[in-house]
Please model this.
Amino acid sequence: MDPLDVVGNLQKVRPAYQSIVSAIKHDVIGYEVLGRFYDNNESESLGSFFLDEEVPEEFKVEVDQHILQLAISDMLKNDNSGYLFINRTAKQLMVNDGEDLLETLLTFEQRGFAMNRIIIEVTEHDFDQEFDKLSNLLLYYKTYGIQVAIDHVGAKSSNIDRIRQLEPHILKIDTKHIRTHNSEVFQDIMYSLSMLAHRIGAALLFENIEDDFQLHFAWKNGGRYYQGHYLARPHVELLSKDSLSLDIGSKVAAYIQREKLLIEQRLVILTEWEHKVKGLLSKWEGTKKIDEFINLLSHQFNEESFRMFICDSDGLQISSNFRKREKEWELEPRKKGSNWAFRPYFLENVMQMKTLNRGTISDIYSDIETKEMVRTFSFPLTDKHFLFVDIRYSYIYENECLLI
Ligand code: CA
Model:
């Protein structure tokens, strides 16, 4: 497409809207605005025009301004009170110090379109050059109520300091990465991004959702907003909830039922494990015969565990390790005297067990020694002695409820 054709035929340029759906209201709350060029009843995406580095920034600004004006007019005409997500590169924003966009928005504000309904999407890619200038401009925009989203987050995770500095309202996570990264890697990236979002008060928006698996992933990972072909393709009209490809409410209802069932199953397992230990508590003869006591217990956890030991409430290991490498349990007396209080949540868990007199199960984590993913079941034998039963990964893997 010749860039001059585009700029010279603005009457052929129209916005397309991709619906953005809220996890809270299960409704369309806004639209990402995309550019389309219409010629002889055929439409073409303007993506390549905007990505072409040869096209002067001034051209792009002109076309984008035109699309934005049409989009806001569409919203006003249709009495639509949703948000508009607009894509802008740093270079585009820098043209004329970003005044064109601001002026347009100020004009429309007088016609009843509030500034806080605009969300500017900038990409991490743009942080590489002139970050301070971009950051200052976005801060300036924010004083008018304009919102900021970081687009394509998670492609690389090296920009956490800069994302923090911008304090965006929204982080847009590209769900495509679930397909391209291995899932454990992406799970870890997601974990850091969720923490970051939580700390800076940003909402997570998952985009490019293409199937049920990805929608479920987005829901499970705290996505407040969803976007993608699975929900709605870009459309010339401002779609409402009834025009979405699926009933988001019933989808989420199914996820909730499934999640509750898995949690319930996990609690049943936890209770069974507690019963196994309680059944042997009468054999507890104090710390002098501590290894004999674990020996009895080890037969109860043959299936589930590969390592068991007992600590006091300061995290000091007061028993040997019971360690199963092949079929038999082996004793590792050397481990006695280790201190585990430094481990995350260790003391928190010990105090909870002591106070509530209940067993507990840790999150999944990577074991220091085996490098395998494990979970630890722990139980208060007395108010001073705590049993730790490390559950092997193959057992976790066989029981889906232990994977969540
Ligand atoms: Ca975008």
Remarks:
- Residues 32, 87, 121, 151 surround calcium ion (CB under 6 Å).
- The longest strand covers residues 28-39.
- The mean pLDDT is 93.
